[in-house]
């Protein structure tokens, strides 16, 4: 690959899996996160760099991009992956302060990443790739909290909008929408929903495999999303922009409960 990438939320989960995969394919990776110990350890292990970055703060996001320029002289890939799940509950009782905090990270943070990556990609005159993490919750209602759903739908909008502006500069902007990936965020949500603190990633993956996939017995993994990001960042996806790559085992496209009609009786 030979490219320079900044990955927000790169210390664990999808971000960490992507950082490792990018590095294995020759990329120089900067991990931008607030989990300093995890992030620094991972960056050291892949020959990358770590920077403390709260994406809701524009100065932090600008500093992450500047690190790429200082370290390698350019930025080729921005993966806006950082996000939080936010408050659950009825819209009638929605905590607006908590919602504003979520939007600041999920939406404003993504805008910060696009803004500062695009600015330097334009200056570099070599194009670039910007990837944003959305969610199946942006496609189907009822899969997540109202705040989270709102934020992930907004990410689709800003990605498509900026793809229209930035294409003339050779900059591609795309989204990935995962479903049922057993990241720490989803595992914590399942623990709360089920009232069981001992629920782990393997159990969550099995639940998704049974109830949220057309591929019975096949649950999602963080590596599935990492490979999707690697594809979008590669030259193999050179003619793809303004696209939302849904990685969901077919969940949002069709109903697995109807599979009986294809069976011989």
From TrEMBL:
Domain of life: Eukaryota
Keyword Electron transport: no
GO molecular function, one term: oxidoreductase activity
Pfam families assigned: adh_short_C2
Keywords: Oxidoreductase
The keyword Oxidoreductase appears for this protein: yes
PANTHER family tied to this protein: 3-OXOACYL-(ACYL-CARRIER-PROTEIN) REDUCTASE (AFU_ORTHOLOGUE AFUA_6G11210), SHORT-CHAIN DEHYDROGENASE REDUCTASE ATA1
Family: Belongs to the short-chain dehydrogenases/reductases (SDR) family.
Designated name of the protein: Uncharacterized protein
Originating organism: Liquidambar formosana (Formosan gum)
